[in-house]
């Protein structure tokens, strides 16, 4: 890494380096032309041979000094390092904060977009939660699939304390929107999130699986991959979470529900699931995936209450797919 762009704990972006280069060139010019206040600092004053001119220049310099010294720091139009030009409409601290956050965002973006890029958490250490959220949201708008992949890889290698501090904000405000926005499968994102599910199933369940349930997804490759990656022992938990948080059965739910219902559920969960299926029986009457799901559910749970059987009979009778007869035959034998 180029050492010239390192300033204490921060790595300056290319934009900042170019800006500093311009400032450096300006400083090479006669500094007295920049601003009257530089006359105080500049020891190479213009020599004058005429006594009257000397006195006039001295008086002018004194007036400038008095004028400058009478001003407050906020009113000065330049600093000793010629870095900032204060804007009367903003206070200095607000400007500095704005510039710093932009530089941090730019630096993180450039690092993540590189091949094998990594997330430099040192850049976020001293930020408030609000500042960090702003930067994460800005990154979400700019990162391409490779940058998002590199971010998730970095998250998979976080320490426990780092995950406690950052995982929710990155999953909720960056990774989740990227999944929702997908219109076609992304192998990169799928592979890294499968790895995330293997390493941190609780985080993926809480910050990815549950929040997606009531969203209209165009591409379901990632959610299907995540559900298939969970350990079979967790499926009963996922069904319970699904039934607790879902507002209505969506067509894209059918694919991962085929995986989850292979486990035996209790009477309470059966009540909720049958009710959910019953509410969409008419809408999905011609949907083969729906018919197959109901048939699989009936096969995997041979013990139903009388009320549950009645609802399942209604669903079977409404169904218009090739799974109608098998459903009815199994229900008759119960």
Automatic annotation (TrEMBL):
Q: Which InterPro entries match?
A: FANCE
> Quick one: a GO cellular component term?
Fanconi anaemia nuclear complex
* Annotated GO biological process: interstrand cross-link repair
Q: Where is this region: Disordered?
A: 43-69
Name assigned to this protein: Fanconi Anaemia group E protein C-terminal domain-containing protein
